[in-house]
# Entry
Amino acid sequence: MSAPEDSTATPESSAPATAVTSEWGRVTADGTVYVRTPDGEKAVGQYPEGTPEEALKFFTDRFDALAFEVDLLEKRVKAGALGPEEASASVKTVRGQVEDANAVGDLTSLRGRLDSLSPVIAAQREEKKAERAQKVAESKVAKEKIVAEAETLGESSDWRNGANRLRELLDEWKALPRLDRASDDALWRRFSTARTGYTRRRKLHFAEQHEKRDTARSIKEKLATEAESLATSLEWAATAGRFRDLMRDWKAAGPAPREVDEALWKRFRGAQDAFFSARDEANAEVDREFAANAEAKEALLVEAEALLPVTDLEAAKKAFRDLAERWDAAGKVPRERMKDLEGRIRKVEQAIRGVEDEQWKKSDPEKSARADDMVTKLEKAIADVQKDLDAARAAGNEKKVKDLEENLASRQSFLEMARRAADEFSG
# Structure
C-alpha cells in the first residue's frame, strides 16, 4: 500500500520542522510522532529522550506487535481453533486495540483484515449450527433407543444384568447432547419411569428372597440339629430312612443366606457321614462274620451233595435233618452268596423230597390228606412268621428282620413243594 497524501490539519507554518519521516509516519524535531491515515496525520505520542529514529522505531514496533496479534488471530479463526462466539469476542477485542493504538503503520489494513474475518466467523457459525442440528437429531434417535431398551428392561426379571445395563444406559444418556426442552423432558420421564419401576420390583424381589432365605435358615438349623442327634444312633435301618427324609426336607427348604448356608451344610453332612460311616463299619464287621459262616456252609454242602443220588431214603432224611440243623446254626452269609448257597441246599432237599414223594405215591393210602395237612400247617406257620416279620420291620430291628426273612424264604420253599405234592395227589 502506498503512503497516503499528507493532508495534515496542522499548518506547516506552525508545525515544528520534520526530523525523520517514513512511509506511515514522521517524527518532528521535538520528538512528536505522527501516523498517516486516510483522514490525515494523527499524533500518537512523543519520545523526547531518544533520537528521532529511535522514536519512530518505538511506535513502529508497537504496530508490528499489533500486526502479529492480528495475524495470529486470523490463523486461529480460519483454522477453526476458536468457536464462533469466542472468535467474535476476540476480533472485537483486537479491533479495539487497533482503534486506540498509538502506533505507526498501516492501521487501516489491520482493520480491513479484521473486517474480513466476519464472513468467515458467520460461515463457521452456520456450520456449527448445522453440526449441532445433526447432533441433536442423532441424539434424539439415540435417546429414543435408550428409552425403548430401558422400558423393555423395566418389565424384565433379569435382576443381575438388568441393573447393570440400566446404569450403563444412564451413562450413555448423560453423554448425549440435550434436545429441545419439551422433547428431552418427555423422553427423560419415560426413561426415569422405566428405571424406577424396575428398581421397585427388584427391591421387592430381593426382599422376598431375603425372607425365604431366613425361613430356609431356620429350617436348616433344625435339620442340622436333628442330624447331629442321629449321628450316633445304632438303629441302622430306621435312622438311614430318617436321614433320607431329612435330605429331602433339606433340598425342599431352598438356599439360606450365603454366609450361613455352607456352615449349616457342613454340620448336616458331617452328622450324616458320621452315621453312615459307623453303619458301614458295623456292616463290614457283620460281613466278615458272614464270610466265615459261608465257608462253614460250603463244607456242609459237600456233605449234603454226597447224599445224592438217594439210595436209602430214611438214612438220607436223617442225615439231611442233621445237616439242616447245622446249616441253620451256621448263621447268615453275605447277601451276594445267599442265592447260590440256598439254591444248592434246596436242590439236595428237593431231590430227597422227590424220592419221598415217589414212595408216598406207592405206599401211603392217605397221601392226599397228608399233603393237604402239610400245606395247611405250612401256610399257618408262614402267616405267623410274616406277622413277626412285619412287627420287626415296624420296630426297625434289622437283625431280626433278616433272620425272619431267611426263615420265611425256607418255609415258602417247603410250601411250594407241598402244594405240588397235593396237586399231584388230587390229580
Remarks:
- Residues 131-209 form one domain.
- DSSP finds eleven helices and four strands in the chain.
